[in-house]
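Weekly modeling sync, notes
Attendees: AB, CL, MP (scribe)

Item 1: holo prediction request
CL wants a bound-state model with adenosine-5'-triphosphate before deciding which constructs to order. AB pointed out that an apo prediction alone won't tell us much about the pocket. Agreed to run with the ligand included and paste results into these notes for async review.

Input as submitted:
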Amino acid sequence: MKVLLRLMKYLRPSTKWVVLSLSLLILGTLIDLIAPWLLKEVFDNGIAKKNTSVILGLTLALAGIQVIKSFAMFLQGRSQELVGQNVVFTLRKQMYEHLQKLSFSYYDKAKTGQLMSRMTGDIEAVKNFIGFGALNMVGGLLTFIGTIIFMVIMQWQVTLLSMSTIPLLVFILFRFNKKVGPAWGQIREQMGRLTTTLQENISGIRVVKAFAREQAEQVKFEKRNDENFDTNMERAKLEAKAFPMMGFYGGLTFLIMIWLGAYYVAKGQMTLGTFMAFQWYTWGIIWPLNMLGWQINIMQQAIKAAPRVFEVVDTPIDISDPANGGIASAPIKGNVTFEHVSFHFADQDQEKEEGILQDILLDVREGEIIAVLGATGSGKSSLIALMSRFYDVSEGRVLIDGVDVRDYELDGLRRKIGIVPQETFLFSASIRENIAYGVPEATQEQIEWAATKAQIHTYIESMPFGYDTLIGERGVGLSGGQRQRVALARAILMDPPILVLDEATASVDTATESAIHEELLEVMKGRTTFIIAQRLSSVKRADRIIVLDQGKVVQQGTHKELFEQDGFFRNLFEMQEAASVG
Ligand SMILES: Nc1ncnc2c1ncn2[C@@H]1O[C@H](COP(=O)(O)OP(=O)(O)OP(=O)(O)O)[C@@H](O)[C@H]1O
């Protein structure tokens, strides 16, 4: 009920269309109720009294109201669809906007397939109810009640006696509603899991093929498909049990009405016209009840689908602008301070697990080049993520130019930090659009300048369509290193005071890496740059190197200072030296 009430709130912006649709529905129902009455008059006042002008007049009246009804139903269908589409539009917009605002913590756990299924199938189920089922239910109810009233006025004994089967019909419907609800809940959930399996399979198809796991994947998918098939069959079984029974009791109503009606006509307690009208009216009782089965289906789907959408929309946004809107980021120069920073992920058990970062103290001057080294999983990427507020610190503060990052206007803060992430994501658009992603208004010269700095300009020029070359969603047509260079150009183009290169040259060969670093020297000038790297060759230009180990800074200093100390840095140096000699 709560879900339905919440869904009804989405109708508010379309109030005038809802009112129009309802009014037309009432008009259509009234016409349906008047038509059998006119038929009764044709028999009783036309045929019985052999009055042809009454017959003609009433037939014309019947035709007239049918024309009006057709027109009303056309308009009603249009306005009803508009109401449904408006609700879908608003829900989809709300969900998409909310997804844009949710933080990394949410996406760490979110399943893409589930989100896609909620955005499409679940919202569609809601639309079917709002834009079709709900109003039809109201229409059915009006027809049902109106028909009984008209019939009782005409001949109450036959009406009440022929309706003796109705309580049974209502009982069947009640039971059906109770059982079909959970089935629809399962079906919606299974559709989400099915889409997730499909999405993961397609995204990971290269791994699937490389490990020859197609057969196993097929089995996994089949299992999900089977589950969905079985639940749908269970639901169909419920329908198969309920609907024919309803049809049977409906038919019985009709039979009783004919039998009793004929009996009453024969006894002279009912006119032939009323008898004929009753045959028509009976459908006004049977039809809404039979339709109610389908309408319950539509309603239950919506009741189970809507909470899946609301769950996303209701997820609290944990990282957002400060309440006062935040400090403008325009003057940021690039001084970065980590002040006793500790960090753990939201789902970590703080009692049992150590923090990902522990009591980090770091002061980076504007324009300084800082290399961050450390073993895999030591917390390098996490440290950097705190600057852009991809996550918020658990303790301490991260300051940029002396201001806590949580006090800046969020978008502005992020635009001041150009990041080349470990994993490059390119959109299915042209190379130009991909490079200009952060600065869509950039000129061709600016884009080419950034591409040159990232050592990718010459390659782009050599492609048949140059900067207009379209790349697929995984950067089809580009190698791993080339993709990384496009991502590098994207960050450079933002002209940020703080630049973060997270293993940004890990996928390029050593010659290209050294060329990129030569070019980057100029780019890095005047910018605070964080270089996360495993290769020492990438960090040799750094002013200072910090070494992380299990979330703590264990070494800090210049190349020379660290080389003179025993520790991770010298070990790494010696290992890489040995490897290059070997
Ligand atoms: N979303 C997450 N939830 C929980 N733990 C996480 C999450 N992301 C990373 N971790 C853990 O946090 C630790 C630090 O990860 P981080 O990515 O910062 O390491 P890193 O030094 O950058 O590693 P690499 O060099 O392999 O990229 C790792 O132990 C990792 O398992």
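Recorded for review: The pocket of adenosine-5'-triphosphate is lined by residues 108, 345, 356, 374, 376-382, 422 (CB under 6 Å).
Action items: CL to compare against the apo run; MP to circulate these notes.
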